Amino acid sequence: MALVPELYRNWQIFAVILYFCRSSGHEEGGKCKAKSLHDFYSSICLLSCKDTSLKMSMFDWKFADDQLLLNTFPIDSEKRNYVREVKGALFSVVKPTALKSSPKLVAVSEDALSILDMDPTITNTRDFLYVVSGNAVRKGSTPLSHRYGGHQFGVWAGQLGDGRAVMLGEYVNQNGERWELQLKGAGLTPYARRADGRAVLRSSLREFLCSEAMHYLGVPTSRAVSIVTSDDPVWRDQFYNGNPVKEKAAVVLRLAKSWFRFGSLEVLTYNNEIKLLRNLVDFIIEQYFQQINSNDPHKYLAFYSEVVSQTADMIARWMSVGFSHGVCNTDNFSILSITIDYGPFGFLDSYDPEFVPNTSDDEKMYSYEKQPDVGYFNLQKLGIALQPLLTEKQISQMRQILNGYADIYKRKFMELFRTKLGLIGSDKGDVGFIGWLLKIMKDTRADYTMTFRQLGSLTLDEMKIRVIPAKLWALKQLEKHRYFNEWIAMYVNRIESSGLVDETRRQTMHSVNPRYILRNWIAQAAIEKAENGDFTKVQQVLKVLQNPFQKQHIAEKAGYANMPPPWADKLKVSCSS
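The structure assignment produced for this chain is given below.
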């Protein structure tokens, strides 16, 4: 400590100084690396002016004292980490596998970071980097990997589980919210099957960016705090064509209030672990569905009804922003109806209802247009998993609840699409009116996102005289359809008959129809830069996606609201990650 050697003798003062060094990013290897006393004292001044409720050092941050999952459920008694069938437990204790080469912090979502009461300066510390890369385990953490099963592409796949994910622990923030911290790509677990437990930078970046993008689009989702990469080699055959390629390893720190999914219940029913199933469902109701009376004899029906309704809402929101998940297996459907496990997803460019982002999905089982039907199928499987807890009469009632799914979905879909068109109230002709627009979009292969966005830029007067400004390139494509003018006339009539002020309509549309989405070509451009050690593009894209409804100079310069480049159609993504 060259700056103030006389204080070095006093360990208490030294501890305070080292704390400020760490918090301000001036600590390295236990030594203060501030270049001058001015640097050092300026840091202390800045820190003292900040909100001290946010933690600037991992030294001051800790997991919740009461780890509910660890203390509530039976834990796998086998402590060795090898691939196996697990029975009678929901979790196995698994320590993350450290990266061998030096981890590098690619990007951080400061908004997600704030959920954990962490100040952005904490990301400059080595302790933070080591925790989010899996190279160090915090005191008070018992890392767990979750056992679950699932139907994959319509077929029961047996035990699946967290094959490369490790939950570090639960944290209760200053708002009283309990969050589960999970590292994805943290190494082998008992559920890794034939995989290596790692994730590559390519797919991890997509998950990191899309988790945050979906949040800002208003879609229920898990969150992503950080992404770390290293030069550890990971071999992947991306398109399953016999040509594996060496890629860089990556680890994403993900957040969710719960990582339980439909398959969490399914695996217990299939293995006749009914007592554990009951304990799990009771826990889920008590923790996450507190509006349900835990003493109600029909609580399991009430729980199922909530999940049916919330899943319909989630999928309607997917459809409204043109999102296709890609792998809608029951093990990828959250019990809280949040979007999780971002793999070979994609957002629509041109409107194609049969769009399948996942090249591994040869039969188009999980196409964009089939997602509502897949939601029904998955909810049906969840209902089967719950049957051991129900009476015969309740099972019959459960089927009636499921039969209501389609109506719930349609109501939400229409509500969202009316808002996308800036409409108020409802009209008996709205279903046909919206359906006709989508048909015109399909026929002309109009850009999904920008069609709605640019309809919000088109004034009522321009509609009446059928003038489409050249800058509204998506509408110029739509204009080619022979029925476009008829649809516009219907739109004008619908607006005027409702007494809607045109400026209000346009403001509403611009508040719900994004200008920027995570198109595959945008993600790919960031990936290619990052794979060459340049993380600035990732950080730029994240910043843009955090304000998808606002026009941004940096995004306009990059062409993020322009017609996708010709090479965008050639991009492919798969389950290989």
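Interim note for the steering committee: Residues 1-20, 22-31, 34-38, 40-52 have pLDDT under 50 and may be disordered. The chain is about 40% helix and 10% strand.
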